[in-house]
Amino acid sequence: MSVLETQSVSIRFGGVFANTDVSIKVGEWEIVGVIGPNGAGKTTAFNIVTGFYKPDRGRVLYKGRDITNLAVHERTALGMGRTFQNVGLVKGSTVRENLVSAQYLEADYSTLAGMLGSPRTFVSEAELRKRGDAVAEVMGLGEFLDRQVAGLPYGVLKRVEIATVLATDPDVLLLDEPSSGMGPEEAHDLGDTLLELRREFGLSIAMIEHHVPLVVRVCDYVYCLNFGQLLAEGLPEEVRNHPQVVTAYLGEDAEDPALQKVEEKLETLLDTD
Amino acid sequence: MAVETASRGPAAETGETVEGGEPSFRPSPIGWLARGIVWAAIAWLVLIFPLGREAFELQRYSEAVIFGIIGLSLNVLLGYVGQISLGHQAFVGIGAFTSAYIVTEQNLSFWVGVAAAVAVGGLQALVLGGVSLRITGLYFALVTLAYGLVAEKNIFQIQELTGGGLGQPAPKPKGFESDFRYYYLCLVFLAIVLWVDWRMMRTKSGRALLALRENPRVASTFGVNVRLLTLFAFVVSGAFAGLGGALLAHNDTRVSPETWSFNLALIFVIMTVVGGLRSRAGVVIGSAFFALIGYLLDKFTILQDGLNAIPGAPDLSPEIARLVIGPVLLLLTLTLTPGGIGQQIRPIVRWLTGHRFDLKDRGLKEVQISDVRA
Predict the structure, then answer these.
(1) Nearest CA-CA distance, residue A2 and chain B, Å
(2) Measured between alpha carbons, how far is residue A253 from residues A247, A256, A261, A267, B252 in Å?
(3) CATH number at residue A7
(4) What's residue B19's pLDDT?
């Protein structure tokens, strides 16, 4: 059974058909890539899956249950974790504070007990901090724990963000361009981390990604979106060489010899990883 | 592997100072002694200095403490949630009348009155927020402004509740009839509010509030019900305001309707911002200062004397003085130190709590003008 599934989901904003009949499946233990040119509707699809948008048509299923009408925080409670394209963190707080904030649902005391300062909350708080530190260690962020988020480099922020989502104890990770702002080397390490996360925590992962070598290396299955519609799906290599996908990225005249040269050059550049 | 790459990031190269990266610092015995002396001085100023003062002075001190509670109430909304209330005088005023009505008309004890004021304050916020917190920012501010005016023109005109033009008597509680005892009672209430506020911000709901102020989308992916928690914070703010109102009523032993004008709401907002959003110490100091302006002007007459030298200068009544000094301080705060008094005194507060003294550590965590602009 698939962990996460959208069934012909459609949404339009005024005259823009942002998603039309998009059906995506994420199986258990699977890492699924979503690629496509800018404005293809990838983030829109993620926003529908995580509950920020309600689709006009279609359904979203989580472990076989229809969650189309659930709010974002309810989906988090079910085990859905999501990162944002432009880094979803509390910038005025430190990395550690972010990791503890993310464990909002993990805290085992009531809001009122917290406000009155019952002794148990102090114990729970210490546990939350310890757990946050452990997650940071997994993501290789130990040295940044006391740093304020606002001053950290972008590549590190992306890792911090994944750590905070891990702290919410998810079953599925939805990562929106996790490798943006990273160099090739860092992106390669990120791939290692993602594979390790799947192995260690049994996570399923869906990710929007532009970095082709990363997609090819870690993804089991890839969907390509263009103009809000699924253009192609299949194994990473298949999708990458799919003629329509190539056209979508490079334009109509992909047969043009000059463009083909560019394409070859791109391929070699991307393959150097 | 990953750890190495990360440490070679740009921040490590530019050698940025590490924030809060000194967990092992312990002050020397002499350091502790110095801190102890300063703590003792503060304790003396708050606890011993008011002893033996005259009744009218003690009332002003109590008022300063109560304003601290009101400032903290507004800080919950303005500092933690990032929503502005321009009708807070209504919450405080209704709290004051509730307690006065219960004690005078119903002949119940002061404690029942205070409890009722807290409950009514929270309930008002629940109803008003439940309806209006679908909108935020400027429009929410307008709703609270309208609410304040409605309270002024309608609720405060109900004879049975407010006692009409003469106002409602609000005697001091049994055992606290003397002004200095009542002053200590106010201090105890301030301490309770500080404790609740501190624990709230150190536990899940407070952290969630900070997250949703900065980015509601991120907060909701953390599993926070953003609408509900915003409403919750508004209720907490309303309950604190109700408490402040009840204490004010019994401090003056009489509440009259005309006290609760829009001017007061402005002063509440200004004193909280000037005190420093999200800084408990700053908010209390700022609020106390605004409560004491009139008293200080009486005590130190330099300003009034100076003004008298100018022909045709106005007489500085406390009301006018607040409305003149307030905006000036507000402008200075917004342009120079958005963190207010809290930002200025942060090195001292850090030092007092056993950290290293670092003048540069203003700990300004993204306090922006946008906070205040709402």
Answers:
(1) 22
(2) 7, 5, 12, 17, 84
(3) 3.40.50.300
(4) 42
Q: Are B211 and B226 in contact (CB under 8 A)?
A: no
Which residues in chain A are contacts of B5 at CB distance < 8 A?
185-186, 189
Report the 10 Å Cβ neighbour count for B208: 28
**Confidence (pLDDT) at A240:** 87
Nearest residue, CB atoms, B224 vs list A73, A88, A164: A73
Residue B325: its pLDDT value, please? 87
- ipTM for the complex? 0.88
Which pTM value belongs to this model? 0.87
Which residues from A are below 8 Å from B218, CB to CB? 84, 88-90
Return the pLDDT at B302: 77
* Domains of chain B from N-terminus onward: 54-215+222-373 (1.10.3470)
Count of domains for chain A: 1
In the prediction, which pLDDT does B126 show? 97
Tell me, what's the pLDDT at B23? Answer: 53
Range of the domain at A249: 2-79+170-271
Min distance B349 CA to chain A CA atoms (Å): 19
pLDDT along chain B (374 residues), means of 10: 35 38 71 92 92 89 97 96 94 96 94 97 96 90 95 89 85 90 96 97 94 92 95 97 97 91 93 94 96 86 74 71 88 87 89 81 51 42
What helix, strand, coil percent values describe chain B, rounded to 5? 75, 0, 25
Q: How far is CA B109 from CA B106, B172, B174, B179, in A?
A: 9, 10, 8, 18
CA distance B81 to A224: 40
Distance of alpha carbon B64 from alpha carbon B286, whole angstroms: 10
Contacts (Cβ under 8 Å, ≥6 apart) of A155: A181, A182, A183, A186, B6, B9
Asked if residue A115 belongs to a domain, the reply is no
Q: Is A176 helix (H, G, I), strand (E, B) or coil?
A: strand
Contact B199, A114 (CB under 8 A): yes
Looking at residue A272, its pLDDT comes to: 58
Chain B hits for A119, CB-CB cut-off 8 Å, are none
Cα-based distances in Å from A41 to A4, A87, B295: 18, 19, 63
- Chain B residues near any Cβ of chain A (below 8 Å): 1-3, 5-7, 9-11, 16, 18-21, 23, 195-196, 198-200, 202-208, 210-211, 214-215, 217-218, 220-226, 232, 236, 365-366
Q: Flag residues of chain A having pLDDT under 70.
A: 252-259, 271-273
For residue A81, the Cα-to-chain-centroid distance in whole angstroms is 8
User: Tell me, what's the pLDDT at B317?
Assistant: 74
Enumerate residues 6+ apart whose C-beta is below 8 A from A193: A139, A140, A159, A162, B2
With tokens 């995580």, the residue in question is A50
**Best CA proximity match to B118, nearest among B252, B250, B247, B241:** B241
Residue among A73, A101, A148 whose CB faces B19 most closely: A148
Which of A172, A169, A149, A171 shows the shortest CA–CA distance to A159?
A: A149
